[in-house]
Design brief:
The chain is of the alpha/beta class. Helices cover 23% and strands 23% of the residues. The two termini are 13 Å apart.
Length: 164
Amino acid sequence: MSIPVVSIVGKSNSGKTRFICGLLPELKRRGYKVATIKHDVHGFDIDKPGKDTWKHSQAGADTVVISSPQKVAMIEKVVQELTMDEVIDKIRGVDIIISEGYKGNPKPKIEIFRSSVHKEPLCSGTDNLLAIVSDVSPDLGVPVFATNDYIAVVDLIEKKFLQR
C-alpha cells in the first residue's frame, strides 16, 4: 500500500510553510507519523564546508549518509532532478507525506491563497484540488477553510486518506 501524499501549493509568499507548520502538530496530536517534502526550484545546500560529510562529498562520494541516535540524513548527488514519485519512493515508515510545492504534480492538493498577496488562485477545480485555505471564498467547487483552521483541514485529510 502506498503512502498517501497531499501537496500544499500556492503562489510565492502565500503562506505554504506557515500552514504546513500548523498542520503538523495536529497530525502528530492524532498519532500520525508524517514526512514532509519541500520542493526547492532554486537548489539548496545542507552540507557545510569543512564538516566531515562535506569532506566525504568533496573527496568523491556520490551519496553521503550521516547517522546519529536521533536522526539520519542522506545527501545524494543526482544527474537530474528527481521526480516527486522518485523522492516519495525513498520515504518509509510514515502514515502520510505532506509536500510543499510541486504545484504541477497530479497528487491531491490544498491551495493556500491570500487575496492580499495575489489576485487569483493558482489552481482550478480540475487540478486534483481538495480544498482552498484562504482569507476569501473563491468558488472552485471545493471546500474553503480559514487560514488557521488546521483542525478542519486535518479532519478532511484524515477522512480522505487516513481512516484506520
